[in-house]
């Protein structure tokens, strides 16, 4: 039996912020272990501890939230006005059930509505296949540092 998530996508509301922080942290901690070291997971998942920075990251993008039938947040994604996908995170229980694809589809629709010609993303090892499914291709592998820990990520793009 295949379990499919039943959800809808709506615009971000301020009351969602604690749920989005939990999704972000839990997603990295539960799904990142296959791809990242303990130090990388600890650094990356700690971002919501900077409450003001995390909120700014959410609100400076056009952010959409996937919610279940009880209006509980199960994923979120954001796109900046210049076409950079700022966020795409799904709660671990809802991964590989279409939520990430639904959110990414909504972000791509938003880019077309805003007449954005090029969409970019800084993808993790985990999210790269989903972005590729939506036509983004790797331009380069970037090496960055966050909280004193080195990471590699994929700079991806597509033309709309």
Shape: globular
The topology string of helices and strands comes to EHHHEEEHEHEE
Give the termini distance in whole angstroms.
36 Å
Q: What portion of residues belong to β-strands? A: 25-35%
Q: What is the name of the CATH superfamily of the domain at 8-116?
A: Gcn5-related N-acetyltransferase (GNAT)
CA radius of gyration: 15 Å
Look at the structure and give the CATH class of the domain at 8-116: Alpha Beta
Q: What would you call the structural class?
A: alpha+beta
Strand order in the sheet with the most strands: 1-2-3-4-5-7-6
Within the CATH hierarchy, at the fold level, what is the topology of the domain at 8-116? Aminopeptidase
Write up this protein.
By secondary structure, the protein is of the alpha+beta class. It has a domain at 8-116: Aminopeptidase (3-Layer(aba) Sandwich), CATH 3.40.630. Helix content is 33%, strand content 32%. It has 5 helices and 7 strands, in the order βαααβββαβαββ. The chain has helices at residues 17-31, 38-45, 51-59, 99-113, 128-133; strands spanning 8-11, 62-67, 73-79, 84-90, 118-123, 137-146, 149-159. The protein has a 7-stranded mixed sheet with strand order 1-2-3-4-5-7-6. Helix 1 (17-31) packs antiparallel against helix 2. It starts with 7 loop residues before the first strand and ends with a strand. The mean pLDDT is 94.
């Amino acid at each position: 039996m295949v379990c499919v998530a039943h959800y809808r996508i709506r615009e971000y509301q301020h009351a969602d912020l604690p749920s989005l922080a939990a999704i972000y942290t839990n997603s990295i901690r539960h799904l990142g272990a296959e791809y990242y070291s303990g130090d990388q997971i600890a650094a990356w998942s700690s971002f919501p501890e900077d409450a003001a920075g995390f909120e700014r990251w959410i609100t400076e993008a056009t952010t959409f939230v996937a919610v279940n039938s009880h209006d509980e947040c199960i994923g979120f994604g954001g796109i900046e006005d210049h076409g950079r996908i700022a966020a795409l995170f799904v709660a671990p229980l809802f991964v590989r059930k279409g939520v990430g694809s639904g959110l990414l589809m909504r972000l791509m629709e938003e880019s077309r509505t805003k007449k954005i010609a090029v969409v970019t993303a800084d993808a993790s090892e985990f999210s790269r296949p989903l972005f590729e499914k939506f036509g983004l291709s790797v331009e380069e592998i970037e090496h960055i540092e966050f909280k004193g820990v080195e990471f590699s990520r994929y700079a991806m793009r597509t033309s709309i």
